[in-house]
What does this fold into?
Amino acid sequence: MAKKPSTTRAAGPKTPRPAAPKKAGKKSSAPTATTKRAAPQAAGAGSPSAAPKVYTLDVFLLSGPITRAFARKNKTVSRTILVRGDQTLNQLHEAIFAAFDRDDPHMYEFQMGKGPMDPDGPRYVLPGAADDDSGAPVAGTVDATTLDAVGLEVGRQFGYWFDFGDDWHHQVGVEAVEDGPGTGTYPRVVKRVGESLPQYLGEEDEG
It folds into this structure.
């Protein structure tokens, strides 16, 4: 008889609410590299013989160009996503992008400090921003770093920042970690709370 996968699950994380409405800012632009630095080391999934874990991640929208009417109607906006440990942070980004029904790509990064949006914590960035030294230290690139490589545990929270102009900030919480490799398609959305806000203010009035 097959061995039952072990499961670790969080005990009732607090539910963040969308922050106060924010006026849409200037569309994002690439960060400027001022000093050449060594390229971040590519992060793998650890031992090639180990089966990847399966992570249950709760992605909460914290702030962005949110209207007051939307915030009143949607006290919480979140998406729960299952992702395998051998998949990259870039694949997690693509899943979040689709889960919130966005259609216009922008720069983004994952922030792995002591909590979401820790300005001093290590961050994982796009390959073109690997030499950027204008902020917190770059720990790696999103295309070369897997979920298993960043040492996620139940209860861990980290930040996802999308569009450096409009500043869509998200909190990603690790709800559960299970033995993999799992079955079906990954990443996949298994729960949606709240509506998806239009990516740009004014779009809800169009069409």
